[in-house]
């Protein structure tokens, strides 16, 4: 009897630890439903038909996991209008309630694009408020460093065009003044995406103390600086610092952000509407910490001739309340 009691107590303790990894966050302002691509499986091909899986994390406007979704809630498209070009899709299977591996407390470098285009894509500075919400969702043992990047002679940058606003800190609120300064007072230039991400990876590898160390990259544009995507991915894998990418607007390089995230162990989120950043940044900590719920979808793609090049596709998510959003990703079907 005593052995049974001890075993039961052990199981309860383990469950409590696992459940504690997923935090429920109250988003203080209204957001829009959003989601992240966690993994895209390698297609299995038979003739001109390819079968593949995709893992997605879906949250509502309040940042809560959207449970209970079925086949009627997911539609694969070749663009966001639903126009059919060359491919036909069929959803073969859907499994919800999966959980990402538990990774524990994180040290995250939050790297924000401060290029001039953010004046148009984010006129209400929701990327700033979203970052504050992310900082508010930190666990007691999580730590965050903050940097922003652009070009320009007056921009107070370090190597790689990155301005370090503060090193790893357990008190996220200490970065509020720095975040507020990004709204209007710092000169905005171009987008040195790769060199800045590489700098953040090296800084994180050298200064983060947690085993679970990551870079969170936010951008609304495409790289117009030096280095390359492959160099950043190689550095990320070498340093064991995954890159989580967040893209805002239709001007981002979907293929770059998708591959940079999924090839390094991170996830990719795209916001067509800046309000989606609110819900995503509210739940981002759960993805970083692990034990976040997700769906695994199995699709079949067919065509007269499957494309042999990497294809940009869009997963449309339709929530029961009528809200819709799209999750772009890149896949090579043949």
TrEMBL record:
PROSITE patterns: PROKAR_LIPOPROTEIN, VWFA. It comes from the Bacteria. Pfam families: VWA. CDD domains: vWFA. InterPro entries: VWF_A (IPR002035), vWFA_dom_sf (IPR036465). Residues 107-284 form the VWFA domain. This is von Willebrand factor type A domain-containing protein. It comes from Pseudarcicella hirudinis.
């Amino acid at each position: 009897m005593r052995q049974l009691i001890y075993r039961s107590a052990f199981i309860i303790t383990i469950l409590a630890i696992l459940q504690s990894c997923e935090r429920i966050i109250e988003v203080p302002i209204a957001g829009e439903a959003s989601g992240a691509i966690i993994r895209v499986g390698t297609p299995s091909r038979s003739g001109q038909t390819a079968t593949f899986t995709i893992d997605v994390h879906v949250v509502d406007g309040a940042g809560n996991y959207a449970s209970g979704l079925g086949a009627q809630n997911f539609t694969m498209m070749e663009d966001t209008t639903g126009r059919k070009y060359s491919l036909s899709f069929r959803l073969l299977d859907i499994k919800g309630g999966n959980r990402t591996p538990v990774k524990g407390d994180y040290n995250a470098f939050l790297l924000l694009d401060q290029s001039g285009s953010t004046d148009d894509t984010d006129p209400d500075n929701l990327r700033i408020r979203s970052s504050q919400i992310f900082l508010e969702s930190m666990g007691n043992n999580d730590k965050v460093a903050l940097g922003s990047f652009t070009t320009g002679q007056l921009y107070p940058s370090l190597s790689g065009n990155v301005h370090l606003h503060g090193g790893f800190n357990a008190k996220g609120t200490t970065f509020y003044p720095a975040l507020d300064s990004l709204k209007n007072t710092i000169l905005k230039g171009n987008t040195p995406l790769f060199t800045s991400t590489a700098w953040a990876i090296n800084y994180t590898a050298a200064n983060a103390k947690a085993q679970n160390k990551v870079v969170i990259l936010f951008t609304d544009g495409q790289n117009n600086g030096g280095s390359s995507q492959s160099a950043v991915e190689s550095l990320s894998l070498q340093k064991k610092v995954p890159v989580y990418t967040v893209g805002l607007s239709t001007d981002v390089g979907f293929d770059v952000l998708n591959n940079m995230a999924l090839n390094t162990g991170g996830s990719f989120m795209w916001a067509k509407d800046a309000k989606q950043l609110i819900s995503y940044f509210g739940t981002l900590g759960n993805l970083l910490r692990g034990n976040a719920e997700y769906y695994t979808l199995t699709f079949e793609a067919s065509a007269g001739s499957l494309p042999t090049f990497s294809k940009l596709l869009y997963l449309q998510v339709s929530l029961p309340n009528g809200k819709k959003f799209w999750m772009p990703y890149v896949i090579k079907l043949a």
